[in-house]
Amino acid sequence: MVHTDRHFEHLDPAALQPPANLWERGRTICMALLLVGLVGIAVAWPMYPKQFYHSALSSWSFCWTTMMGVLFFVLLHHLVDAGWSTVIRRPSEQILAAMPVILLAAIPIVIGMYGNQLHHWMYADPAEDHLLHKKGWWLDKTFLAIRLVVYAIAWLLLANRLRKNSIGQDRDGAAHWTISNRRWSAGGIMLYGLTVTFCAFDLLMALDHHWFSTVFGVYVWSGGVVGGLCVITLVSLKLRKGPLKQYIGSDQIHDLGKLVFAFSVFWAYIAFSQYFLIWYGNIPEETVYYLKRWTGVAEEGSTWWFISILMPIGRFLAPFLILMSAIAKRNPRVLAPMCVLLLFFHWVDQYWMVMPEKSPAGPPLQYVWMDLAVLAAIVGGCGMMFISALRKQALLPVMDPRLVEALSGEHVEEIEHAEVE
């Protein structure tokens, strides 16, 4: 099937073939972030290895969960055969081009794990630790390495397949590309859910192998979806000011705002559920997680309580009150700052999950520069890959059968009005 609908005749050439210098300033900033981050890593890694590995894990977790949020959005788009999100799907797919950067950035974390700098269960004696003995079938170094490889292959496979099919459809408009992505998403969403959950268990929850929570995987996933949606929203708002100004309408922005709002509320629900169940059960192996992040487990106490209070305010209360209005969700001047705020607190959330295991007395603020160095390197690398991918392909899936639906209503009127003028 090849499309000949009249609306495709009015597509802006800039949307079909992006300019070679698209977002040149952004690419320069990303390159600078990458270089500064690599310099910081080169200084921090040999000087403060233990602190560096924890900083690397917290900042990597922020980028990883955000990337998983973007992957979830693309999978969900194909799974439900959505129409409205077609005009913002291609930029979302091009974010997935940075998946190799995320996986390469995990190498220092794996080195820290197997170097006894992060997950101390790897060199503990199961004979002296009853819980480790019971979990030994899962907490096994060889089995862990196999799982990590499986996770990486699964995410690369899904990201590359969805992008390849989408770009392939631009050439011939054949319907089998759409059907293929729908089938890959149907099975991929299950694979995605399992790998993200188990990776959260392996890299984050296992920092304290005595602690366990069946809600933890959903907690990490929901926070990542909020982060991914915020990135997609910010990218869409930026493109709306440029080559896609005729195609990304207020309806798409409103729908993105509703998703950001909904998943921030869902994150709060999961966070409260986990806390409430652990508080009610009052089992020492479970309560230790929140004790470390509140009063502390040592006599000198802890100052993590301050971040524990700020978290629900920044991640739930502020966006809930501000984005409740439909007008706010449609207003870029309101939605964009809220996305930035949510991304900041998403990073704080990862820091709050990782760093108390290294510094139970309070946040090691003197080493925040390490966290920022790793974050800058990963974000810079991902940004360069994303912008490079964005320049190489059409900014819209021009032969997708759902594009007509996405360009219906106010969007078609804007295009036809521009043609008349």
What can you see in these coordinates?
This protein starts with 12 loop residues before the first helix and ends with a helix. It has helices spanning 13-16, 24-47, 49-79, 86-95, 99-105, 107-114, 130-134, 141-172, 175-203, 216-240, 250-281, 284-292, 305-322, 326-330, 332-354, 368-392, 403-406, 410-420. It is mostly helical and 421 residues long. The protein contains 18 helices and no strands. The longest helix is centred in the middle third of the chain and has 32 residues, at 141-172. It has one domain. 72% of the residues lie in helices and 0% in strands.
Apparent shape: globular
The whole-number mean of residue pLDDT values reads 90
Which structural class fits the helix and strand makeup?
A: mainly alpha
What low-confidence regions span 5 or more consecutive residues with pLDDT below 50?
A: 1-7, 411-421
Strand content: under 5%
Considering DSSP H and I runs of 4 or more, what fraction of the residues is helical?
over 70%
Largest sheet: none
Task: Report the end-to-end length measured between terminal Cα atoms.
Answer: 32 Å
Total beta strands: 0
Short description, anyone?
Helix content is 72%, strand content 0%. With 421 residues, it is mostly helical. The two termini are 32 Å apart.
What's the layout of helices and strands?
Layout: H1 13-16, H2 24-47, H3 49-79, H4 86-95, H5 99-105, H6 107-114, H7 130-134, H8 141-172, H9 175-203, H10 216-240, H11 250-281, H12 284-292, H13 305-322, H14 326-330, H15 332-354, H16 368-392, H17 403-406, H18 410-420
Helix pairs in contact: 2-3, 2-16, 3-4, 3-5, 3-6, 3-9, 3-10, 3-15, 3-16, 4-16, 5-16, 8-9, 9-10, 10-11, 10-15, 11-13, 11-15, 13-15
